[in-house]
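Appendix B. Chain record.
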Amino acid sequence: MSAAERIDLAECYRQQRTDLVRLAFLLSGDRELAEDVVQVVFADVQPRWDAVTDARAYFRRAVTNRVKDAQRRRFRQPAPPSHGASTGIPDVDESWQVVRRLPPAQRHVVILHFYEDMALVDIAELLGRNPATVRSDLHRALDTLKGTMRD
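Structure tokens predicted for this chain:
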């Protein structure tokens, strides 16, 4: 990207914030955490903003990594029950509740693949995992979702 095409960080924030908060929320299931993660990611990049060449990819990776870090830290702490936001559409709410109960690795793959429309190879690269493992996680998640939705 040339200097003339480059946007400033504030404009990038305005353009990408909503999508990044949605991604963080889908990955974590926690709206407060999602907001916090996005704020921290934008604050952290400020000193080195000029070195970022692909802002969308950078922020997607940074948000994903921050959510994973937060989940690791919270792993040992019992989480309060989360009722989540209701859409008023029973099928959507039920599906989301099932997706939220998937193990984090499987949930991340499902969200990145179906909500962010990412290819499995790109997901593997983003998560720093083997593509075969990502495919396995997706298949296991889909099997779990199919089984749960039939019940």
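Further analysis of this model is presented in Appendix C.
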